Amino acid sequence: MKKDVLICLFLSIVLISCKKAYDSSFTLEGTITDIEDSTLVEISYDIFKKNDRITITDSTRTINGKFSFQGNIEDVTAARLDFSNRFIRIYMEPTFMNLHIDRNKPYRYRLTGTTVEEEDIKLRQCMQPYMEFYYKSLDSIISLSHEIDLSQEGSPLRDSLIRIGNNIFAMNEINSYKRDSIQLNFAAKHPSYRITPDLLYSILETDNVNIDSVRAVYDILADEIKNSRMGKLILKEINEYEKKRRILNSTSIGSYPFDFIRKSFTGETIQLSDYKYKTYVLLDFWASWCILCLKEMPKMKEICKKYQSKDLTIIGISLDKDKNSCCKAIQRHQLNGWPQVLSIGQEDENSDNSVKESALSETYGCTEIPFYVLIDKDGKVVARWEYIGDAELGLLDNIIE
Hints:
Layout: H1 2-23, E1 25-33, E2 40-49, E3 52-61, E4 66-72, E5 77-83, E6 86-92, E7 96-102, E8 110-112, H2 117-150, H3 156-189, H4 196-206, H5 211-219, H6 223-226, H7 229-251, E9 261-263, E10 269-271, E11 280-286, H8 291-307, E12 312-318, H9 323-332, E13 340-342, H10 360-363, E14 371-375, E15 381-385, H11 390-400
Parallel strand pairs: 1-7, 11-12, 12-13
Antiparallel strand pairs: 1-4, 2-3, 2-5, 5-6, 7-8, 9-10, 11-14, 14-15
Helix pairs in contact: 2-3, 3-4, 4-5, 4-7, 5-7
């Protein structure tokens, strides 16, 4: 009897495990009409781990117009399929799905097997004229590109073709804004749809709609949609966009930037506000692994030498994560003529939580290096540069003189 109970328990565990594996798996079988055999079909979709978005990509080739993908997802998941200069966006679920696509009218695809498809059908009905315009524009651009490649450099024909192409690009840009406006209105009208958080995410990606409008639609979403994986993710994205806007607003020209305190590599306490009403400050964002940054260092030494007596202080802000690497670079390239600090915050030794301060690169909206921020004696940003050339040196002369 005891043995039978153990066997039953074992089988129950196996069946539960199999059910969980099955519940998260999907199979997508598709057919594309009017397409060449062995055409590459690519799929990309996102899964979530600890509320972070991870992109999964896969590819296959058509055989007699057919293709198939398999994978694992936990809930409604947006996926993009690319093939033969075409793409469509579908919503998958962990189940068996069948997809039928007409290559000439891909936006009219048919997807069976999901419960969420009813929502997407209504969306595609609203979007159809704008998607038709997009594909017509795409075909025109591809055709024009071939003609431009065959035309003679500098010829009137080539110039004319380029002008036509630019006009098509401009019209498609307008069409893109209209598409996002339609999607936003659709999302606002359907706050309980499971696809709505993904619509807001795709709108954020194009940056055509003001973040305040996206936030307003998110705020009216049904609670169950907000608490879904996609709902939690879009909230995270909205918060990130709003944070970036606050940073840009506070570090844009004419604004007063965030104050900061860092220990320099020589042990000196560097606080930005200490320089207010005393000197101009040039923040130099760099890293030991950045070749372009190191090439600019001789120029920084010249600036330091020329303006040090004219109330200019340079503060080097290294994006290095390894303090030793940065120290070696400072010694090797003799960069100790001005204070050098790390962008990343140091752990507070007196704190039980050991929370790190925000990186200065994030605080000042630095996405690429080298990057420079010039602050006047009133503590106000007067310039932001990605490169210091003759024009920038001339402006520096005019400001400091």
